[in-house]
Structure formats: structure tokens, C-alpha cells
Amino acid sequence: MDSNSSIDKYKFLDLLKDDYLYICIMSFQKAIIPIVCLIGTFGNLLSIIVLLGKVLRDKSCCVYLAAKCIADTVFLVALFVVWLARVDVHLFNLHGVCQMVIFITYICGFLSVWCIVFITLENYIRIAHFTRVPQLCKPDIARGVILAMCLVSVVIYNFPLWTAGSIQMNGTAKCVMLKEYVAINKGLTYMDTAVTLVLPSLVIITLLVAIIMNIYECYKKRKRLRRLGRHDAMVFLCDSPHSRVTKMLFAVSSVFILLHTPSHAIRIRLIIMFFLKADGLKIDEFRLQRVFELFYYANFSLNCFIYLCFGITFRHIFCSTYLKSCLSYKAKRKIHRHLKNIIQENQLEKKNGVTILYSNETIWEKVTDNRESVNHIELSSVGEVQSASL
């Protein structure tokens, strides 16, 4: 179905069929994939409703998160169609369905990866350059970026529509890459590795390192403020984007790196070994490839759990939407107050049209120069800070 599983052929095929551990891993995959698809699809749909609700839909980070959930849901549906072939329901092997499913998985994988890239970029802007948030972190910009990514993905990944097909093998239809396009498919597989692993991983890791360094600088400034007894400034920094914005989006980016990278990393190694026609391939690498594929699929199904664990506003809206009858009166009042504040902040933000935010350097200068108290700093749009805490 996807290119992660397209390279374990030829030399090791017969050996893998007789390997007991590999067979056990494949059997576990067969059992767990429908569960991953079901839980992931259900959780993503719940998340989409929350993220596109009236409270969060005007936040650019929520637009990216919702787009990722939509792409991940479509990917899981396509994955389930492929899984059906393992239980002798050969929908995937039908002509037309074969090409479309491969096409969809490539596009959704691309969109999911690059949504994470832009989520991480926005997180970096909110932390390191949060005076630019009103100009750069707009929902209209996010929608434009998503539309552009969709168009680019269609241009790049239309090749399965004409390089794949359903052919008869031993009396059974099989969805395969057509022999006359083998060279093209190999080249496009390498390109896909660069576009969906190498480049986005470099960008995400670089931005995450920059975020961590910026937070560390904030921590050092907090220590200085503590020594100076400026608790008001210290509280401001704790409640600033450094603590409230980072948590949710940083978690999304980090989990993506942890779950997405292993599958592609071993895929790169196998591609290189096949390309060099090396003899160093081991059967353990193919076993690991199948295990890491489960991590890769889990990346598409854990969105709701991540948002619930790390998103304060998301969790409150989720509970008020789906679990209202199960909440105590005290919990309902707490959620109601929180959501009321969020709505008021959104209205204030729309009315003013401008967000005034002060950088850490400005705050530090005010403290060291003994100018007016930091607690008089105007923070007109708390909504922008709240938005990324979800």
C-alpha cells in the first residue's frame, strides 16, 4: 500500500516466508491494524468537530491541527481498505480502487507531515518572535498554506494513477506497480523519502532545538528575576507563550518525530542497501521494518489523545461537548468560566484587530533599568496566547 512496504522483496522474500518471528509480527499487524484504524478514525472525527467549532476555528494553529486530523482520517480509511485484502476481501485489488488508494495514501502522508512542519514553525514564531504573531499566525494564511500543500501534493503524487494497476497473478487480481514504470517508481520513491522524511525532519528538529534554546533563555531570565525579587515579571513569563503555547504544539511535533522517523529511517537503509546491491542485509532489519510500520500507523491515530493530554482549552471543549452529562456541577462551572473567557478574548481580539506583545528582552530591560513595573505591561490579546494552549 505505502512505499514503506514496497522494498522488502526479491532476495529475502522466500526467507521471510519461513521466518517464525517475522510471521508472528505480520500476524500481530493483521490483528492490530483494524483497531488502530477504528480508534484513530473515531478520535480524529471527534477532534475535527472540536477544532472547527466556534471557539477554536479562528485560530491558525487549530486550522493546521484540523487539516492534519482530516488527512490522517482519510489515510486510515485507505489503510483499512488495504487491510481487507489480508482477510480475503479484495477491494483494494480492483482496478481503479488500487490506483486511488495508493494515490490517497501518498497525498495524506505528505499533508500530515507538512502540517506538522507548519505547526512547529508557528510554535517557534509564537515563542521566539511572538510580536509577529498578529501578522504571521492568521487563520486565512493557514488555509492558504493548506490549499497550496494540497495542490503541490496532487502534482507530485499523481504517478500512482498511471504507474500502478491491477493484474492477474495465479488467477487472482493483485495491485502492483507496473513493470514498465519500475525505474520511474524507484526514482519517485527516493523523492518521496526526501520530501516526507529528510527535509521535514531537518526542519522540525531544527525548530524544536531553537524552541528549547529559547525556553532555556527564558528559564535563565526567570532565575535572574527571582534573584531581583521581581515576581510579577516572573509570573508574566510563566504565563507567556513560553509556557502556555509550547506545551500542546511541542508535544504534537515531538510525538510525530518519535513515531514517524523509525519507519522511514530503516526504509532509507534498506533502499541504500538495495541500491548498492550490498550483502549486509539482515532479516532483523525486515522484522524491525514491520514493527516500525505500526509506529508509523499509530502516528495517524493518536491525535485526539495528544490533544486531550496537552491541550487545556481543547480538553475543556471536548468535555463540554461529549461528556457534559458525566461532569459534576463544579467541573461544569469551571469549564463554563474558562470557555466564557476564551470567547470574550476572541471577541476582543477581533474588535481590536491588533495584538500588543512584549518580548522577553523588552521585559528584561524594564526590570534592569528599574522602569515602571512589569505588571503594567499591556497584553491586549490574551487570546493569541490562549489559542495555542488549546
Characterization of the model:
The protein has 390 residues and is mainly alpha-helical. The protein has a single domain (3-389), classed as Up-down Bundle (Rhopdopsin 7-helix transmembrane proteins). The chain contains 17 helices and 2 strands. The protein has helices at residues 13-17, 20-51, 60-84, 97-128, 133-136, 139-156, 160-163, 182-228, 231-239, 241-244, 246-276, 283-298, 303-310, 312-322, 329-352, 360-368, 382-389; strands at residues 164-169, 172-177. Strand 1 and strand 2 form a beta hairpin. It is globular.
Task: Please specify the SSE layout and strand pairing.
Layout: H1 13-17, H2 20-51, H3 60-84, H4 97-128, H5 133-136, H6 139-156, H7 160-163, E1 164-169, E2 172-177, H8 182-228, H9 231-239, H10 241-244, H11 246-276, H12 283-298, H13 303-310, H14 312-322, H15 329-352, H16 360-368, H17 382-389
Antiparallel strand pairs: 1-2
Helix pairs in contact: 2-3, 2-12, 2-13, 2-14, 3-4, 3-6, 4-6, 4-8, 4-11, 8-9, 8-11, 11-12, 11-13, 13-14, 14-15, 15-17
